[in-house]
Write a structure and sequence with these properties.
Elements lengths: L4 H40 L3 H24 L4 H19 L8
Helix pairs in contact: 1-2, 1-3, 2-3
């Protein structure tokens, strides 16, 4: 347990930051899940409206990930990893690979 005033304050600040980071990560994960579900919806029923939904959800998730990296909630490489996951899912949904001729 903290013994002096400054260490008690650091404990309080660390707890506050932990809760803020937790909330930020949670909202980031939610936006990522929305993007993945939008990709699945586009695969089920392709159309212009579904495509714009995929693009909008991807942009929102990218923005949130970039802000998390900027705030220090997420490491730069972890942010890049999550953005790559989203990009692959969106690319696979919008531009599916053509079937091989073999």
């Amino acid at each position: 347990m903290a013994n002096n005033k400054s260490s008690k304050k650091r404990v309080e600040i660390a707890e506050r930051n932990r809760l803020q980071n937790k909330a930020y990560k949670s909202s980031m994960r939610t936006l990522m899940k929305r993007c993945f579900s939008a990709c699945e919806a586009y695969n089920a029923t392709p159309g212009d409206e579904a495509k714009t939904s995929v693009q909008a959800s991807m942009n929102a998730a990218f923005s949130k990930i970039d802000k998390a990296v900027k705030r220090g909630v997420l490491h730069r490489n972890a942010g890049a990893h999550q953005k790559a996951r989203l990009s692959v899912a969106v690319k696979k949904a919008i531009d599916p690979a053509p079937a091989s001729a073999s």
